[in-house]
Design goal:
The protein is α/β, with parallel strands linked by helices. 14% of the residues lie in helices and 24% in strands. It is built from 4 helices and 13 strands. The chain is globular and about 45 Å long. It starts with a helix and ends in an 11-residue tail after the last strand.
Length: 219
């Protein structure tokens, strides 16, 4: 069974490490803030100028002025700092972000990312994605394995304009956890109830499957 958006965020959260500075992109990545493992100390950074982002607020905690890059209301943890977007991007471009979690339209087997433009659709701009893929030390992408037409989003070569080249390390889809290395997708885990053969059938790029692929575990 395919993972929900929340389950995808939960699996990404298992990749966090104590002491990390982490940027969460718009969409599914923002949900990761709700699933930081208990007892782990990380600082979540938003490109609009917040370091120390917390989970989504309850109805009583909502502050309309406290928002993330997707203009969703958020909370701030103890020790948080608020600053200009210029300072936020100085952190990103300076290589001070340990991990970035981004959404995508396409990823290919070389780790190239297309996340900002679909030809024929009105797009306001790339946003901060180009800076994030260039400045972060590690990048995880999270997205559905296929588009609404059932076409694979894990390709031999991206067909859409690129955001970054050779930049994606791991991918969490609604079907699988994969690593991108040596010019191929490597299947590490599969969603509960999803077979490796189904993942293979929905992956257009080269996919390396071990003989025994473990199911994801959600504690």
């Amino acid at each position: 069974m395919a993972l929900t958006r929340e389950q995808m965020a939960m699996r990404v959260a298992q990749e966090l490490r104590d002491g990390f500075y982490i940027n969460l992109g718009i969409g599914i990545p923002t949900l990761v803030a709700n699933y930081v493992p208990q007892g782990m100390d990380v600082m979540l950074q938003s490109e609009n100028g917040l370091l120390g982002m917390g989970a989504y607020p309850t109805e009583q905690e909502v502050d309309a002025d406290m928002i993330n890059a997707g203009k969703e209301t958020v909370t701030a943890r103890t020790g948080a700092a608020i600053f200009s977007s210029a300072e936020s991007f100085a952190m990103i471009r300076g290589g001070h972000v340990d991990l970035t979690v981004l959404g995508a339209f396409e990823v290919d087997q070389q780790g190239n990312l297309a996340s900002w433009m679909i030809p024929g659709k009105l797009i306001k701009g790339m946003g901060g994605a180009m800076d994030l893929v260039a400045g972060a030390k590690n990048i995880i992408c999270t997205m559905t394995h296929a588009n609404k037409q059932g076409e694979s989003k894990l390709l031999q070569h991206c067909s859409l304009p690129l955001t970054g080249v050779n930049c994606i390390n791991k991918i969490v889809t609604d079907l699988a956890l994969l690593e991108v290395k040596e010019g191929a997708f490597h299947l590490l885990e599969r969603a509960p109830g999803v077979s490796a053969s189904e993942i293979q059938a929905k992956t257009a790029g080269m996919l390396i499957c071990p003989d025994d692929v473990p199911e994801m575990v959600f504690s």
